[in-house]
Amino acid sequence: MDNQLKKFSTVQFLNFCLGFFGLQFAWQMRIILSGPVTENLGASPLLYGLIWLAGPFTGMVVQPIVGALSDKTVSPFGRRRPYLLAGALIASLALLIFPNSGKVAIFFQNLLGCELPVWTGLLIAAIMIWIIDACVNVAQGPYRALVPDVVPEEQYSLANSYISLAIGLGSVVAAGAAPFLKLAFGYQMSINAQFLMAALAFSLAMLWTCLKIKEHQITKAEEKEVEVEEKNFVTSVKEFFAMSPEVGKICTMQFFTWIGTMCMMIFFTQYAVHTIYQVPDFAGMTDGLKLLYDADKLAGTNFSSICFAIFNFVCFVVAIPIGILSEKFGNKKIHIISIITMILAYIGMYFSKNVIEVAVLMGIAGIGWASICALPFAMLSKYIKKGTEGAVMGIFNIFIAGPQVFVCTLVAWMISKTGFALNDGLINYRWEDAFLIGALCLMIAALITNTIEEK
């Protein structure tokens, strides 16, 4: 089938990756603002980490199932596109509800005519996060499977680099919109408005890609072949690792890479607010004290958004060059160099509390992020059999989602044990410790990458 696929033009690649732009836009907004929203509703560091379990658990369960289903889905709209669009639309609804969780709790309290527990708003917020993450995973697995579906093998690295470009650009716009409006026009965009923007971006961008990309319709012969090969999940996993000894190395590398990556993704906003801007833990404050620190918290959140915008802008700028360099020098060499830059940035952020230095270091870390979003998938794509793309990408996602469980539980628990008292009786935590753990795991990932023999 590969020989029949025509090379993608630049315009086709842009149409192809626009949906991922919307997906990442929504995901970035959830990363940056979920901490302030849930902390304001009473979430401690450990509870915040447990709420973040939504992503890995739905990723480990949803993506393999949806990926396998999309392999054998036959519809006038294609195999993958129904999942892309359904995930985007449902997630967009949850994005609208999430920042209003407290108001929704009050609405139900008035409707029922009785007082609900104080944690009801936090529970609603947690449910919305689970729905958002589940729907992102519904769309993400089949999206990655589209690469070997519609792109010729010699363009796999470039296709994944365009996805990396979309991830970078989507994150830049999502993270940079509110700070830009504040700096340029003095207008502070509300959290509600930012989530509305994310919902529109996700649904409209995904709709565009679904309309513009024509899928290969599975033939009856290919359908029968898939039915014969797909027996059960355990068999699929065995066959996944049987593709090549290098597949196991790629998965192990991905596992440690994503522990390192999520140490930053999950905790950076809290690090910006509490470590750099020295705002005490909000969960232990009265409403009156929260008002005193509200301006500093907002400044820290805006700084986090700026840093994520820089981080993802660098990802956007270097995404295509990384794809071109990897085609020339090999995925492995370029990926190792990129990861090393991220390690150095993490170490710098562990020791620095200066806003300029941290912003620059986040930009350096963006080089590693561009590679992480593209090259491991390009390495794996070389081994995928036709008709099993969705199942393979779903299984591979376990090694992205699984590490997040480690970060959301053990790393969050470790941070919750670093509490120290301030002069006014309030407490704070050593959020920067997440960067030290992340750097160590990224170093392990780089060492494993060096052992991979590329196809």
Descriptive account of the structure:
The protein has helices at 10-40, 45-51, 54-71, 81-97, 101-112, 120-150, 156-185, 191-212, 220-229, 233-242, 245-276, 287-329, 331-351, 355-372, 375-381, 389-416, 433-449; strands at 420-421, 427-428. The protein has 455 residues and is mostly helical. The chain has one domain: Growth Hormone, Chain: A (Up-down Bundle), CATH 1.20.1250.20. Strands 1-2 form a two-stranded antiparallel sheet. Helix 7 runs antiparallel to helix 15 (375-381), helix 11 runs parallel beside helix 16 and helix 12 runs antiparallel to helix 13. The chain is globular and about 65 Å long.
Summarize the structure.
By secondary structure, the protein is mostly helical. The chain contains 17 helices and two strands.
Instruction: Classify the secondary structure makeup into a structural class.
Output: mainly alpha
Order of helices and strands: HHHHHHHHHHHHHHHHEEH
Q: Helix count, per DSSP?
A: 17
What's the gyration radius in Å? 22 Å
Q: Pick out the low-confidence regions.
A: none
Shape: globular
The mean pLDDT is 83
CATH homolog superfamily: MFS general substrate transporter like domains
Q: Count the domains.
A: 1
Strand content is: under 5%
Strand order of the largest sheet: 1-2
How many runs of DSSP E, i.e. beta strands? 2
What is the helical fraction, as a range of percent? over 70%
The description of the largest β-sheet is:
2 strands, antiparallel
CATH architecture: Up-down Bundle
Q: Class in CATH?
A: Mainly Alpha
What fold name stands as the CATH topology?
Growth Hormone, Chain: A
Distance between the termini: 19 Å
